[in-house]
Amino acid sequence: MRLINLLKRELSKEARDWVQDGIISKQQADLILHRYGSSLEQGKATGSFGYYVLMSLAVLFAGLSLILLVSENWNEIPRWLRMSGLLLVTLSANGFGLFYFRQDNRMAAVLWLLFGSISYGVSIMLIAQIYHLGEHFPDGIYWWALGILPLVVATHSRLIAFLVTALAFIWMFVEAEMQFFPLSFPIFILVVGWLIFWQKTSSLLYLAALVGVLIWLNLALSRIIDERFYDMTTDMALFNIGLGLLFNGLSWWLMSSDVSRWKTYGLVSHLWLLRAAIVMLFIFSFDDVLSEFQYVAYQSFWSSMSFLFVSGLAGLGLAYGSGKHAYLPMTLIWLYFLVSFSVLSISLESATYFTIMTNFVLVTMGILLIRRGISQVESHYFYMGVVTLLILAFIRYFDLIGGYLGGAALFLVAASILLGSAKYWKKVQEEDDTGALSVNQGEQSNE
User: Fold this and answer.
1) pTM, to two decimals
2) Is residue 379 pLDDT above 80, yes or no?
3) Which of 100, 320, 377, 401 is exposed most, by the fewest CB atoms within 10 A?
């Protein structure tokens, strides 16, 4: 995705040069760039982006230096000087940030507010240490994140949103480690979601928010199953498969949107969920793994299966309007897991047969990805399908499910698919080259 964004910025720069040289009009440039989800304004500030990154890192290291310096000499500093120093640094940094914000100097404002946010967190921790306030130390991280959360709304800064997200993740993990449930975590995700969906574009923040939602939902389910501990159970696998199908359907829905940033988010999450699905299928392609899914290992089997059924159906409903490339692979995976877990809960002897079926599902997914990559001229799908088949062949070479004949059959199928894909790809490229040549000859004849 970084490469795609880089290409968009380069295309925007080239389009501005074409407009200045009189090759195309501004309206034509806008139409061309809109087709690729870009605009003439994109990339104008690219030159200052490196300066902004370096200044942000400088502020971050300055904040870390402040923490270490104060910590080293903390006991030798009088209490009144500690308090006044912490308050002075925090208020001054945030005051400078607000001053530059009112002056419409956004970059300086965000950098000062970032330093002020770090100072604010240091002040919370050290003041709590001075006056021995509270024994549940995750509360300090929570109030740090919550205290700077309004700055995200006020400044629309992705940099401060990154800091808030990182603090929210740390608080969630520490809280769960101490056997407490991070109930307020969705507050941070909602604010970050508002920023990236309606104000600024950031694929990294979107992925972080998506991962945060998945982790929080897993913690919530684990808490429901066992109020005392966060233990992974077999139900969690069904739950996450259902969530994956639901979020993949949502990704297809986002890709069908007219908003450029929503399309980008949909593509990003779809690709990562697709990779996660392939990894999960590889895990289930081993005989021992499926054998572990015994009926007695479930805490609430039918509830989990019902969730898998409903969430998969909802995901298919969201993806249906996007065409067969969306709902066919999802339907295949959905039905496979529904049938597999239903049968395995009754008869463990069928584990080997379903392991063999998993391998053929992976082969089918590889075929569909290669076919989709060729038909849509999308290299990431094509190479994902090729890599899936190659990894499958490599794994089956060392772990021959179904004996030597089964492994040989899989190798033969993989070889046939790769050979056919290569020939079809060559044919498509030759047709494109022939079409381009005929167009050029037609233009020359008209001249």
Assistant:
1) 0.74
2) no
3) 377
Q: What are the φ/ψ torsions at residue 145 (nearest 5 degrees)?
A: -65, -45
**Which position has the token pair 């970050």?**
192
pLDDT tens digits, residue range 390-413? 787 777 666 655 556 666 666 676
CB 72 within 8 A of CB 51: no
Closest CA to 182 of 207, 157, 159, 213: 213
Please report which residue ranges of 73-184 form alpha helices under DSSP H.
79-102, 106-130, 138-155, 158-177
Quick one: angle between helices 26-35 and 2-20, nearest 10?
Answer: 170
In this predicted structure, what is the pLDDT of residue 63? 64
Quickly list DSSP for 252-321: HHHHTSS-HHHHHHHHHHHHHHHHHHHHHHHHTTSHHHHHT--GGG-SSHHHHHHHHHHHHHHHHHHHGG
Judged by DSSP in three states, 220 sits in: helix
Provide mean pLDDT across the span 107-116. 82
Q: Which residue has the tokens 């805490």?
A: 299
- The pLDDT of residue 190: 95
CA distance 35 to 249: 24
Q: What's the rounded Cα separation, in Å, for the pair 128 and 199?
A: 36
Element (H, E) at 203: helix 203-225
Separation CA 359–CA 393 (nearest Å): 10
pLDDT in tens, 58-89: 666 666 666 666 666 566 666 666 677 777 77
- Give the residue among 360, 357, 388, 194 at the shortest CA–CA distance from 278: 388
Distance CA 36, CA 45 (A): 19
